[in-house]
Design brief:
heterodimer; A: 309 residues; mainly alpha; MetI-like fold; 2 domains; two-stranded antiparallel ribbon; 2 strands; B: 314 residues; cell membrane (chain B); MetI-like (chain B); Carbohydrate ABC transporter permease (chain B)
Chain lengths: 309, 314
């Protein structure tokens, strides 16, 4: 096996590694470097200015708004999405009971539900955002016309135009599009829990709440935790950018009075706005730090004894 | 809820220890005593939870059905009677979107970009993963973690420098530039997934081929790659969906109107249609962009789910 081994290894690794280094690693290293310069992005000249960009960021009101919204996304979205998904997955896999033969089954038609729930996951986030943008339109969107149809002519919210509602409207869209993924993910996890655990609990007369909190959730904990991190990264990253960028308007995008601005969008606005390239990468570094912190905190909080079965 | 407290004592307190068999008969007593109450609770719960399931299914399906319905209606009826069925199927919306709104161009661009980058991702990803999974050499672990680390980087941070990297290489606003970037950003997950997959394949077949005089390269392409087909399909579908739906990278790196891909073309259309008001055409465009992925999902349902959940389930 030794003959020509190293030539083969190098030959197979060089192209993928070169592409990855050039388009992924190198830009990341550069970004962190640029955050210490006053580079405008327009001309090749720049000076090192130390932490000036960072001081500026801490005094930037819009940065704090974006940070606050991103943190809300990272806490509320996983909570809502994973909570809903756990409930649905439990109903679909364990919820149906007292049918002949098996001790635990899903409710009737669970296969159908799983297929339908997963639909939004395969759609482009751009398409989803556009669809909901129409639905939210205050004058001729479906939501308000539905409210009118049931006689609520007085309740006609501005939805995305209302600074108090816009952020919630955007979050609903992200929940809508991701719940199905987690339902399927948790279903796969629940399917691998041995049936005797449920049978034993049933013999003891445990009800659904007990079964869920004492058996299903502890045994599913690892999957829930990695799902939590996945959802948080998604809520801090590209998906939230696309939704906010497409759905909300404003002076430069980001909703009325920056009410929906999130960190990735603020990076984008600065990066391709007038001469703020270095400052944009500074906010990008802040986003990277928030993302890594989030993942660390979730892993620490979620650490518990590993259950083997 | 009161019954919960009394009964829960019966469940092993700290975890799913299987209850020893002899205890079970003793417990039937209290169990049957609470049976009527439990049944009532169960029914209320059933109605509630079934209701939630149905409501969510409706919430998922209605927006999609509404888009399909609207694509066959006239602009006027979309707004005046949003919930009515179309009076007749206005196929002219579809042909208008396909030709005048350049959906055909966006479609073609997307097919070219996704086709090219999918082949590239699978080829380069499986080459790197094979070497990392099957060969011992100095730096193996380091390169592996270098690839895996890419999964946790926020793409948006790299965008500004990436823009200038592409500009310097005159790859900005070209389809092949976009293909290369898609491949690079798909590599972390692909390498992660396929490395694990190659480790599970038996070594004996590859060794036999090598003893018979096949080179490493030949062994890889003629023996290992065909054996890895299930893994390639899963990760291929994952990448197909991700690359077909990509929005951020083309928005920044591909601003030439002629080269737009579907997702950015649609958003562009929505912004400009706001003035012209061709909503039915836009809806037709939206549905056109949805159809290929929905079709792929329905046909490959099992593999899609396996591919998408493979990374997160242990």
């Amino acid at each position: 096996m030794q003959h020509g081994k190293y030539r083969f290894i190098v030959g197979f690794l060089v192209v993928p590694l070169a592409l990855y280094a050039l388009f992924v690693l190198w830009p990341f290293v550069q970004a962190i470097f640029y955050s210490f310069t006053n580079w405008s992005g327009l001309s090749p000249d720049f000076q090192m200015i130390g932490f000036d960009n960072y001081t500026r960021m801490f005094e930037d009101e819009i940065f704090w708004k974006a940070l606050r919204h991103s943190l809300i996304f990272a806490v509320v979205l996983p909570l809502l999405t994973i909570g809903l998904a756990l409930f649905f997955a439990f109903m679909l896999n364990v919820g149906g009971r007292a049918r002949k033969g098996a001790a635990v089954t899903g409710v009737r038609g669970s296969g159908f539900y799983k297929i339908v729930y997963f639909f939004p996951q395969v759609l482009s986030i751009a398409i989803v955002a556009l669809l909901f943008k129409f639905a939210y339109n205050p004058t001729d969107g479906v939501l308000n016309s539905l409210l009118r149809a049931i006689g609520l002519d007085s309740v006609q919210p501005d939805w995305l135009g209302d600074p108090d509602l816009a952020l919630i409207c955007v979050m609903v869209v992200l929940v809508w599009s991701t719940v199905g993924f987690f339902v399927v993910l948790f279903s796969a996890g629940m399917a691998s829990i041995p049936k005797d655990f449920y049978e034993a609990a049933l013999l003891d007369g445990a009800n659904r709440f007990t079964t869920f909190f004492r058996i299903t959730l502890p045994l599913l904990w690892d999957t829930v935790q990695s799902g939590w991190i996945y959802m948080g990264i998604l809520a801090l990253g590209a998906e939230s950018f696309a939704v906010v960028h497409i759905m909300t308007v404003g002076p430069r995008g980001g909703g009325p009075d920056f009410s929906t601005i999130v960190l990735p969008l603020y990076v984008y606005q600065n990066a391709f706005g007038p001469g703020q390239a270095a400052y944009a990468t500074t906010i990008g570094v802040a986003l990277l730090i928030v993302t890594l912190l989030f993942a660390t905190v979730v892993m620490r909080l979620g650490r518990r004894e590993r259950l083997e079965y | 809820m009161k019954t919960t407290d009394t009964i829960s004592e019966g469940v092993a307190g700290d975890g799913p220890e299987p209850v020893p068999a002899p205890i079970a008969p003793e417990r039937t007593g209290p169990g049957s005593r609470t049976a009527p109450g439990k049944k009532g609770e169960g029914q209320v719960l059933n109605v509630f939870s079934h209701g939630m399931l149905v409501i969510w299914a409706i919430m998922v399906v209605v927006p999609l059905l509404w888009a399909v319905m609207s694509s066959f209606k006239t602009d006027k009826t979309i707004f005046t009677e949003p919930w009515s069925l179309p009076d007749k199927l206005h196929f002219e919306n579809w042909s208008r979107a396909w030709t005048e709104a350049h959906m055909s161009d966006y479609f073609l661009n997307t097919v070219l970009v996704v086709g090219g980058s999918l082949v590239g991702t699978l080829l380069l990803g499986s080459m790197a993963a094979y070497v990392l999974a099957r060969f011992e050499f100095p730096g193996n672990r380091f390169i592996y973690f270098l690839f895996i680390g890419g999964m946790s980087f926020p793409v948006i941070l790299a965008l500004v420098p990436l823009f200038y990297v592409l500009q310097n290489m005159t790859l900005l606003n070209t389809l092949h530039g976009l293909i290369l970037v898609y491949i690079a950003y798909s590599l972390p997950f692909t390498v992660f997934f396929l490395t694990a997959f190659f480790r599970t394949l038996p070594t004996s077949v590859a060794e036999a081929a090598f003893v018979d005089g096949a080179s490493h390269t030949r062994t890889f392409f003629q023996v290992m790659l065909p054996m890895a087909k299930p893994g390639l399909i899963s990760v291929g579908i994952f990448n197909f969906l991700g690359q077909w739906n990509q929005y951020l990278l083309p928005t920044v790196l591909n601003t030439d109107p002629e080269k737009k891909v579907l997702s950015q073309g649609l958003v562009q259309l929505a912004v400009s249609q706001g003035y012209k008001g061709d909503y039915s055409g836009l809806m037709a465009g939206l549905v056109m962009a949805m159809l290929p992925v929905l079709a792929a999902y329905i046909i490959f349902q099992r593999q899609v789910v396996a591919g998408l959940t493979a990374g997160a389930v242990k």
